[in-house]
Design goal:
The complex is a heterodimer. By secondary structure, chain A is an alpha+beta fold. Chain A contains two helices and three strands. Chain A has one domain. Chain A has a three-stranded antiparallel β-sheet with strand order 1-2-3, with helices on one face. In chain A, helix 1 runs antiparallel to helix 2. The mean pLDDT of chain A is 90. Chain B is an alpha+beta fold. Chain B contains three helices and four strands. The model of chain B has no long low-confidence stretch (mean pLDDT 86). The chains are: A alpha+beta, B alpha+beta.
Chain lengths: 139, 137
């Protein structure tokens, strides 16, 4: 009788414990993916504001941001960028830009795909301000 | 049996949580370091300060190292392929092409629970890049 009771208790408890463990893992992977994306966008924004100021510098600034974002994301096996990074804002000296990007979190590339069958889309944004003394390129 | 499984799952969950914290902090530390590396040196504003990347990285990572040895790879060199030794992390800053500067943190950190890192392959392999800062007169 006691043996049967222990068996039933084990059968009930084991799936719950396993689900808890997998939940911990999924939360960890999700948090890490979000930190990775936020870091890539943050570095892209920081890179953007190092370019020369003004309309003539805008193309260069976007190239800096895109190069930085794409190169950082390319090293991350869990993230796949969706589209290009965008950085609308004021490109004059002292102006602020807000960079935004989206990426797919690839749970399907991990053993967690067994319990999480979807790859969620996450997004991040970061703000940076160009130095008020940043020079404007001469045309 | 249930108690044994419970203890095992608890240890594994705690270990996974530590790994997430260390991974996230490594990403943040590498981002701080690569910003310094992408800037110019005091001698030449157009030369990336690769050697300067280590200090901000080490300062940020220190709180989650738990006895892990942090190894500074000479500036300009990528981390070694066999860097996944237990209890050590390599920090490498190097140029990736003509315009990009990269910083990698790679290895297998130590855990507060000593034997966990021997059993579970919790590696850290983080690389961030940034466009080199340019200056004009």
């Amino acid at each position: 009788m006691k043996r049967g009771q222990a068996l039933v208790e084990t059968a009930v408890t084991l799936p719950v414990l396993l689900a808890l463990f997998l939940g911990f893992l999924a939360a960890g992977v999700g948090a890490e993916g979000y930190v990775d994306l936020t870091t890539a966008v943050y570095l892209a924004a920081a890179s953007n504001v190092t370019a020369p100021a003004g309309p003539l510098g805008q193309g260069l600034a976007m190239q800096y941001a895109t190069d930085t974002f794409n190169a950082t994301i390319a090293h991350d096996t869990l993230l796949q960028a969706q589209g290009q990074i965008t950085c609308p804002g004021d490109y004059n000296a002292g102006g602020t830009v807000v960079c935004q990007a989206q990426a797919t979190l690839l749970f399907s590339k991990t053993p967690l795909a067994v319990v999480i069958p979807v790859d969620p889309t996450i997004q991040a944004q970061a703000q940076a301000t160009r130095s008020a003394y940043r020079s404007v390129p001469v045309p | 049996m249930v108690v044994g499984v419970f203890v095992l799952v608890t240890f594994a969950a705690v270990s996974a949580a530590f790994h997430s914290i260390q991974g996230a902090m490594a990403e943040t530390a590498a981002a701080a370091g690569v910003q310094v590396a992408a800037s110019g040196t005091t001698a030449s504003p157009n030369t990336p300060d690769l050697a300067g990347a280590y200090t901000p990285t080490q300062k940020l990572l220190q709180s989650v190292l738990f006895g892990t040895a942090l190894v500074q790879v000479p500036a300009g060199q990528n981390c070694s392929q066999d860097a996944m030794q237990s209890g050590s992390l390599e920090v490498c800053a190097y140029q990736d092409g003509p315009n990009l500067v990269a910083e990698s943190i790679r290895g297998r950190p130590a855990f507060p629970i000593p034997w966990i890192d021997q059993v579970l392959p919790w590696n850290i392999d983080v690389t961030v890049e940034m466009h080199q800062v340019t200056y004009q007169q």
